[in-house]
Amino acid sequence: MTRPADVVRILGVDPGLTRCGIAVVDVDARRRAALVHVEVVGTPPGTSLDQRLLRIDEAVTRILACHRPDRAAVERMFANNNTPTVLGTAQAAGVAIAAAARAGIPVGLHTPSEVKAAVTGHGDAGKEQVTTMVTRILRLDAPPRPADAADALALAIAHGWRGTALGHAAGQTGMDTADMASRAGRSHSAARVPLPTRAGEMTAAQRAWLAAERSTGGRRR
Amino acid sequence: MTRPADVVRILGVDPGLTRCGIAVVDVDARRRAALVHVEVVGTPPGTSLDQRLLRIDEAVTRILACHRPDRAAVERMFANNNTPTVLGTAQAAGVAIAAAARAGIPVGLHTPSEVKAAVTGHGDAGKEQVTTMVTRILRLDAPPRPADAADALALAIAHGWRGTALGHAAGQTGMDTADMASRAGRSHSAARVPLPTRAGEMTAAQRAWLAAERSTGGRRR
Questions:
Q1: Does residue A3 sit within a domain?
Q2: Which chain A positions have a beta carbon within 8 Å of B60's beta carbon?
Q3: In a domain, B2, yes or no
């Protein structure tokens, strides 16, 4: 249970009733990220809604108790999402957020664009790009599958990067997201790359994140 | 804690982040309904989403532990609802459903039209009509306020009526909803009104419920 003082452990949840990605990642002060746990839980569409939500509730609660993350990150949703699954996804997200809140840890919300910008440098990156970058960032032997696992990991990494180094409080502006994607490809030497300290030194990834953040305007439901 | 064998205790939740109505009602085999508990919980819109959902989770969990209902009923939502609050309402509903599932009780979902049809005889009844009928059905001295309290009570009553008498299993067709609204106005003598047993004897309330049920087609998210 003891972790180095400079390590922040992050729970990331990519919500869904059929496939819910749940990841735990450690991020240190030098922005090195390490896989702790990842799994995808869910139930077939024909299952009753109460049993589907219970399944997610139990899985998130179990992983919280087992790995004791310091913070959680869950996908932020928008009402203009008109996919048929949006309400089920919102309910799954609500259950995951409440489980983290019950465990007493702060919960951050990030849009898919923010997460993609953080790990790939592009807010409109495809699923394969996200999976490739997550594999490199975490120095995994094989890409995490299915995509829901990679998305949950990306969410945890993005939240961890956001909350370390330049600004240690989650919830600050996009300025503290640093050059995440650029260093992901050379993760073992990441610690030696000096962190940018002025706005003019922002990397493409930082600018992408900042743009994604500004476009959402910190809206809350 | 001991209740007569013919009494079913129902939790009804009208979900919402700002105002979440939570009601507990006892319904006996003669369809008499009695108030056990009702409250409205919530948080101001500026509160963080995790604390808003936690508030609902804690309230529903506390009421489940305190009053030990046999079943729960939560509002069924549809994706074509485009109000700005729909996602927050879905998340609140998800948290309430998961809390009931954790407590091991079955959860029924009903649309507002089904509930209005059950307690007033009209699927498109207004909030005041629902409040008036709930006040009469439960023989209350004053109408429950705010409307969220009345809506949660109506949901619990409708679910209890649906699951008693003609068919004792929740989840059957609308045929087991009986002449709920008509007897509500004379609740003390309700037990003496013979229950209809053939389709041809359906009351206006039964027909309204059946139409509402058919229009939703038992869809699940």
A1: no
A2: none
A3: no
Q: Is B175 exposed, middle or buried (0-12, 13-18, 19+ CB in 10 A)?
A: middle
B93-122 confidence digits (pLDDT tens)? 999 999 999 999 999 999 999 999 999 999
Assign residue A144 a region (left: φ > 0; alpha: ψ between -120 and 50; beta: otherwise).
beta
Q: Measured between CB atoms, does B220 come within 8 Å of chain A?
A: yes
pLDDT in tens, A52-80: 999 999 999 999 999 999 999 999 987 66
What are the residues whose beta carbons fall under 8 Å from the beta carbon of B175, sequence distance 6 or more? B166, B167, B199, B202, B206, B210
Distance separating alpha carbons of residues A129 and A131, to the nearest angstrom:
5
Are A101 and B53 a contacting pair at CB < 8 A? yes
Number of domains into which chain A is organized: 1
- How far is it, in rounded angstroms, from Cα B158 to Cα B10? 10
The verdict on residue A125 lying in a domain is yes
Distance CA A165, CA A152 (A): 22
A6 DSSP assignment: T
Higher pLDDT, B160 or B167: B160
| Residue A38 to residue A150: CA distance in whole angstroms | 9
Q: Which residues of B touch A100 (CB under 8 A)?
A: 50
Domain region containing A141: 8-216
Question: How close is the nearest chain B Cα to the Cα of A106, in Å?
Answer: 8
**Residue A62 dihedral angles phi and psi, to the nearest 5°:** -65, -45
Chain B residue with Cα closest to A54: B98
B87 vs A: CB within 8 A: yes
Within a domain: residue B221? no
Complex confidence, ipTM: 0.76
* pLDDT at A177 (0 to 100): 34
CATH code of B163's domain: 3.30.420.10
A172 pLDDT higher than 60:
no
Of B75, B151, B176, B179, catalytic: B75
* Annotated active-site residue in B26, B28, B114, B148: B148
Chain A residues lying within 8 Å of B94, measured CB to CB? 53, 90-95
**pLDDT (tens digit per residue) in A188-203:** 323 222 333 333 344 5
